């Protein structure tokens, strides 16, 4: 009788073990079948410049069989962006690709994500002081230098190289490293070539409406202004008629150059309100950034720490062609 009981207990334990192994293997299969979730966090949702990133990242996600999340504050805010990232950490997404300022709270929350086992990369605006895996985007110093060279060419062609030119720089947020680098490259390219008297550096807080208001107020109140360098394309999303002071200023000979190429900006250039643009491939940042992240997570393929996407140029010689290539953004 005792032997029968021992044998029954053994069989029962064996069955329990088999059931446990089945449940574990089933759970592992389910985890293996579950698609990766990669979150892209642009600087804000209200800036259309990131739509190309979203569209091409979405296409690549479909191709790779991963789930893309596109989340950000509606208007740019470092503190709100930190909250978004904190929430993604709590939800245990598989990876993140961020456009951020290189400031302490951002660096800290990136470190927190990495400690939680979530790899983090940056696109468009980098945080080299963090532990991010890689940055994909343009060399912003090169971009600033390129637009500075373009301005030098415009000024010399107009015969103004020997004149002091009152200049305003329009930037976004002071802490944005990418914008700081663009301004530095711009100053390097123009130094010793033309005589710029930089009278003001205006910050629009990465806000399109504020950028338009600042531009309109400044050109209205400073008729002596000769040159504007737009470090990004914030005020270029509206027709010329929506910036009547800027339109009149440009028609009287004001020189404007800027970084970011898209359809509406090219229309302003065609009307003569902007003399030259340098652009970045934000779509490639989306598709390639996602693919590099997925390959790292799935196959442990460590990417380069800097993936350069290159610059585009818009001058009078290729403007009509670019107006065919760049199309108005659809409502997504």
Key terms:
332 residues, alpha/beta, six-stranded parallel β-sheet, six-stranded mixed β-sheet, 17% strand
Commentary on this structure:
It is a single chain. The chain is of the alpha/beta class and 332 residues long. The protein has 11 helices and 12 strands. The strands form 2 sheets. The protein has a 6-stranded parallel β-sheet, with helices on both faces. It has a 6-stranded mixed β-sheet with strand order 7-6-8-9-10-12, with helices on both faces. The longest helix is centred in the first third of the chain and has 32 residues, at 2-33. Residues 15-19 and 21-31 have low confidence and may be disordered.
Tell me the number of strands: 12
Give the helix proportion (percent range): 40-55%
DSSP helical segment count: 11
Class per helix and strand makeup: alpha/beta
Describe the structure in brief.
It contains eleven helices and twelve strands.
Blueprint of the fold:
Layout: H1 2-33, E1 37-41, H2 51-64, E2 67-70, H3 78-90, E3 95-98, H4 104-115, E4 120-123, E5 135-137, H5 140-157, E6 164-171, H6 177-190, E7 195-203, H7 208-221, E8 227-230, H8 244-251, E9 255-259, H9 263-270, E10 276-280, H10 282-299, E11 306-308, E12 311-314, H11 319-325
Parallel strand pairs: 1-2, 1-3, 3-4, 4-5, 5-11, 6-7, 6-8, 8-9, 9-10
Antiparallel strand pairs: 10-12
